[in-house]
Amino acid sequence: MPLAVHLLFGAIITALIHPLGLGLFLAFASHYALDALPHWDYSIENIKSKKWNNAFPDFAKIFFDVFPVLAIIFIVSKNPYLLLGAVLAGLPDILMFSNWIFPNKILLFLDEKIHNKTHYPEQKTRLCLRALVTFLIFILAFYVLFTATVNSPLTGSFSTLSKTSLNGPR
Predict the structure, then answer these.
(1) Count of structural domains, the chain
(2) Average pLDDT in the chain
(3) CB under 8 Å, gap of 24 or more: what pairs does 55-59 form?
């Protein structure tokens, strides 16, 4: 699943699930649940195979996938907790990327094991169906993000939120 979808769902879950600690944990866990669905992924083979001289296009894909979504989440919510939920939802891919660079580190290895067990096998479904599912999830996520941040008790500026406890404003 493209990181943008994971980030959006992480922000949504953080906005809707309380207490805040539970929302953040579920944002992280949502990564594995989303990857279990049929979906499309963009190729980052140069990074996986450590062909660093050819990896710039792969890093550009990741940059243009991640940063616009993080900016939209911040603009819509102005809420650092929703950004944290988004980052936690993307963390499993960051850990997997780290395992490619630093293999055999136990935490990174465990994440890759979980990732491989929960990830939907690409060969099971046609590319057009996987792309359609990814697109529909992405559109749904944007819609829910805009409606969730309007109605969430976590919506507000950082100064307002810093007065709340870790468990949220309840």
Answers:
(1) 1
(2) 80
(3) none
